[in-house]
Amino acid sequence: MKIAVCIKRVPDTETRIRIGGDGASIDESGVKFVVNPYDEYAVEEALQRKEKAGGGEVVAIALGPDAAQETIRGALAMGADRGVLLKADRVPADALAVARALAAELKDGGYDLVLFGKVAVDDYNHGVGPMAAELLGLPCVTAVVRLELEGGRGVAEREVEGGVEVVEFALPAVLTADKGLNTPRYPALKGIMAAKKKPIEVKPAALGETRVAVTALALPPDRKAGRIVGEGPDAVGELVRLLRTEAKVL
Amino acid sequence: MAPRFEGVDFYDVGSLLSEEERAVRDTVRQWVDERLAPVINHHYLEGTFPRELVPEMAQLGFFGANLPEEYGCAGLNNVAYGLIMQELERGDSGVRSFASVQGALVMYPIHAFGSEEQRKKWLPKMAAGEVIGCFGLTEPDYGSNPGGMITTAKEMKDGWVLNGAKMWITNGSTAQVAIVWAKTGALDDAAGIRGFIVPTDAPGFSAKDQKGKLSLRASDTSELVLQDVKVGKDALLPGSKGLKSPLSCLTQARYGIAWGALGAAMGCYDEALRYAKQRVMFGKPIAAFQLQQQRLAEMLTEITKAQLLVLQLGRLKDLGKATPQRVSLAKRNNVDVACEVAREARRLLGANGILVEYTAMRHLANLESVYTYEGTHDMHTLILGEEITGISAFE
Lengths: 250, 395
Fold this sequence. Notes:
The complex is a heterodimer of chains A (250) and B (395). Chain A folds into two domains: 2-204, Rossmann fold; 226-250, no CATH class. Helices cover 26% and strands 27% of the residues of chain A. Chain A has helices spanning 37-53, 68-78, 95-106, 128-136, 189-195, 236-245; strands at residues 2-7, 9-11, 33-35, 57-64, 82-87, 113-117, 140-150, 153-160, 163-170, 173-177, 200-204. Chain A has a nine-stranded mixed sheet, with helices on both faces. In chain A, strands 2-3 form a two-stranded antiparallel sheet. In chain A, a hairpin with a 2-residue loop joins β7 and β8 (153-160). Chain A is globular and about 70 Å long. By secondary structure, chain B is of the alpha+beta class. Chain B has three domains: 13-127, Acyl-CoA dehydrogenase/oxidase, N-terminal domain (Butyryl-Coa Dehydrogenase, subunit A, domain 1), CATH 1.10.540.10; 133-235, Butyryl-CoA Dehydrogenase, subunit A, domain 2 (Beta Barrel); 244-389, Butyryl-CoA Dehydrogenase, subunit A, domain 3 (Up-down Bundle), CATH 1.20.140. Chain B is built from ten helices and nine strands. The interface between A and B is medium-sized, with 14 and 20 residues.
């Protein structure tokens, strides 16, 4: 089974973000970068599918700067076979441009399955996976929490508002992984050493025209200080009133 | 759950590490946060070693990680190996001790002094965690002076017969195999000391858990008794010769301890800093008080010095230049620093600092053992004294 996993280098979710001098990007100095957490589920799923099939290839593909090679090597350390870096100075805000560059790479790859994380936690776009599927003319299932593959078909479960949706699809297909699909493995120390010897092909990303640009970034406003409305049972009435009329949560 | 550990790195020492070294550190760091931290308090209070974690530790490659890949090991350099020890001991000194003994005191001598057959027989199984080992050098009456040991190995027609007792043996009751050091000649001849691979189920071999420990409670510490234990000729480590053989194992282990103690210190500092920012007294966080700021400044200074020290020691070790004396300096300094940091962290935490919910008191109690084992602090002082002056104060 030949599987592609598209991964993105993003700031660690616990990093304290500072806005850069241009007001439209983050200041990357001192920021720790990690693989997008949802992409880790995609990598793990690809590895499990290959192991279950008893063979095949898992290719980790990232679009981004040279530093994204470290992100790719993380996937190689987990067990992916080789990597491809579609090099771009920065990842454009235009999801369609990114999807085009990835689709161009994926098109003639002969993949049975293309996996993405359901969303990148830095821009929260949810866009690249489904757009790439569209460009490739492949069926797409997003936010997959359970997956079964049999012959040339697959059944996936998605958690939708208030329930579970079961979807059937034909392979090859593009899937985006949600939390709960699996538990990503730790990169074992031998895997980290082996990753050094696995190939990463670097080529320019065919981004084309980008039609969306970030013009401004702002940090969320500081949270207002809380208010103590009183103490003891006597305060309950006033608290309930304020929760109803002011906070409007009751 | 405790917040994820982000490391302590005031001098950007991380930038002196290779990408692989950082990746190794991060794997172990994450494993400790997710797998060890949630269970360590329970084991510490119960006085049990978290044995259920051994298969995962093996699968991730924590055992004998600086030994070659052909024996099932990870083939890491010594800095990456040190970083494993650092992160494990941030979890608990007892768990780091387990890995140290398995790797540096059992797998290392089999690799260094064993025959190719012995290496092939034991190392892959030990890397996989299928066989646990222990190291028998110290005796009830011979601690800092191991050359005085009275355990003997007598050569017979078809093998060896071992007699004696070993004390303070980490993993002693857990192990399937023991590296036992014994005198093959006269009792006053330390040159006759040889190493033996002894299966712990051999008739006459017994291990007894040492009760009443108030330190390293999540570690198995045992006394070994060998009474007419018969082993084959193939039990002898052919390359071992004299006291320098077991001492070279200790150099390996001490190297890991220098890194490990630093990890415990980093964990204590991190905990103390978080606490100081959150704990409000007299209307402001205690971090705002000069006395606590001094504590934190001293901790960070000593940790930073210790980090640079072990990193350079690791680079020297990869070049074959980490002499036993250089290792002594690092073990002596870093364990001492870690004891101080743990103690000051415990004090900064006030009454909460004595609770198991915080790590400082457990680390402090553990580090008192680490201060004493693998060459006491005092012995390392004398080793350095001899190195500096050329005059031994103990021989």
